[in-house]
Amino acid sequence: MADSTSDPTTTPSRRAHPADASTPTTDDATSPTNDAPSPAHRRPKQPPKKRPRSPRHSPSHGLRRRLLHPLPPSPLLRRPPPSLTQVDGPPLSSSLLQSPSVYQAKSVPVPLRTKFDVPIHITAGGSVVEYEISTQDYDIGFAVTAEREEGVTNVKESARVDAVTGKFLVGSVPCALVFSFDNEYSWFREKRVSYRITVTPPRAENVVRGRRLRAKKALEVVGEDRRVVEERYERAVEKRVELEEQVKRLKKELAEKVKSLDVVVKEESWLEKRREVRDEQIKMLNQRLKNGWEDEKSEI
């Protein structure tokens, strides 16, 4: 039966642990104590450490940074190469390939204005997932998503259902399948859902076939990355040779400038002393012309 009560607002959801899908277990964990240490055992407060001052960003500092990082990384270099562990997949003797895993529960309450999630972690590529969902009396929103490092994929779009079954194949792993039961639209009714989710690992021949497919795809990615690295390496070598020549030329020019500077400094010092001597001579000559000479006064 459909539940017609709905509202656009939402409330926080709760997520079930995969262990919740089986028989309930007792929680015998105890909370840690918060015994505060006595004053005699308290550590003395340490003075705050002074943060070192960052160096001034001079033009040479910026040049050094540009020389160390002359080119931005390409998208292929930003993307990590495929791991051989992911390419190999589970070993043929792994327990993951022996028997199916079943996650089930009956009459799980989903309170009004809430959402209930059942996450299941898949580590064997090629696993087949089958699910059977049913509710009591009223419908509920149901969706399946696959969460991976690169993002979230919608396996089954959200829809309001009374009962539904489905089956799909899991390709890239590891991933977390999230089976969502959404009752956020209901204002008055609690829903009860029952589910049975079966994860069947791939057969040995499928694992072998999947390994080869992943290896070929990985070889394409690694080969393309190798080509890009070779091109960037050649450009880096050319740039290094060019910069070494420029540095060599600049060092030679700098040595010549240092010699010229030394000559100019010596000339400046000599001219400064000569200027002082001339200023004193000009002063003395002006005094003689104005006041006359000492021997001339005695004669007059």
TrEMBL record:
<feature type="compositionally biased region" description="Pro residues">
    <location>
        <begin position="70"/>
        <end position="83"/>
    </location>
</feature>
<keyword id="KW-0175">Coiled coil</keyword>
<feature type="region of interest" description="Disordered">
    <location>
        <begin position="1"/>
        <end position="98"/>
    </location>
</feature>
<dbReference type="InterPro" id="IPR036598">
    <property type="entry name" value="GOLD_dom_sf"/>
</dbReference>
<feature type="compositionally biased region" description="Basic residues">
    <location>
        <begin position="40"/>
        <end position="68"/>
    </location>
</feature>
<feature type="compositionally biased region" description="Low complexity">
    <location>
        <begin position="1"/>
        <end position="37"/>
    </location>
</feature>
<feature type="coiled-coil region">
    <location>
        <begin position="226"/>
        <end position="260"/>
    </location>
</feature>
<protein>
    <recommendedName>
        <fullName>GOLD domain-containing protein</fullName>
    </recommendedName>
</protein>
